[in-house]
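User: Hey, my collaborator sent me this sequence without any context and asked if I could get a structure. I don't really work with proteins. Can you help?
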Amino acid sequence: MKNSAVFLISNHANLLDHLCPFAHESDLTLYYIVEDLLPLLLKYYPMVHHEHRVFLEILALRNEYDTWISSHSRFKDIVKPFFPLYGLQLPKFTYLCHGQSDKWSEKEGPLHRNRPDVSIVYGPLEKQRLSPHHPTIEERGNFRRRFYEKFRSFYDGLVEKEIVPFLDPTKPVLLYAPTWNDKNLGSSFFDHAMQVIEDLKDAFQLIVKPHPRLILDNYSLWLKLELEAEKTGHFFFCSAFPAIYPLLNIVDVYLGDYSSIGYDFLSFQRPLFFLKTKTYRPLKLHKTGHVIESPKEILEGAFADRKKEISNLYTETFGENPIDNRPGKVQNGCHVAHLG
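Assistant: No problem. I've predicted the 3D structure and written it out in structure-token form, which is a compact way to encode the shape of the chain:
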């Protein structure tokens, strides 16, 4: 991708786990404008070439790069008006999808209003969703998983240092990843979070990984939750660790709602559960696991095997076969095969 660069013009640290793997695999530079992101870049993505610029300096890069790549859905809308003011031609705006999205239809979403020149997606599923309105779509496969595999020892070391010491080694790990409360599909957090902790804390080592927007919209509530985690030790609150695949590698069971992390977890071919919300709408992802109304259902009896559905949807999503590097592995000494 000659004459291309990757841009992050917000403080959305969660986008680093999409932009950094892509930039590294494509041998591109990541330019960012929020200085507070530097510690995260140095700590979690030291192998990625990155440079800081203020906003006006970003615009000057138009003379160096013809293609501008971003995962911010409104990136084009934000920067486009400034180019003619400085006598600059518009670059080719490329949108790098940050996760497989089920949250909105193409006609409802921000990309419909700020359509990029090119969209880069994982595979056939997202391409099919965008294709009626986006004439140029490129499939890239699971570049984030490839990035993790390439630097596996580095990232597993971070997990061992920053997460594992806070976990109970005698329990299987359950990740609860609620999405944020948008206008289309609500989060399971408000109706189920406390119940998840209370019902499952004895059987599982719980890790709570909220969507960043959920934290911003309900900051006081999350502070209370963090204090509760620190005080009781019933769960590990994981908001500061941005790398998703290294985290998922230690997880035995996934519990979510509409978060795109569920699609990432397909790669590991392990059990998935989805909590019903008041605005519940069945999705393809839900067919790979079990939709439940109460967290207690996870503890009740055996569940049908969904590995075939998991494998099929992974291939449809990423355009490749899943990689399971821990077949038959018993995480933390606990067998969870009955949940498959």
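In plain terms: The chain is about 35% helix and 15% strand. You can pass these tokens on to your collaborator as they are.
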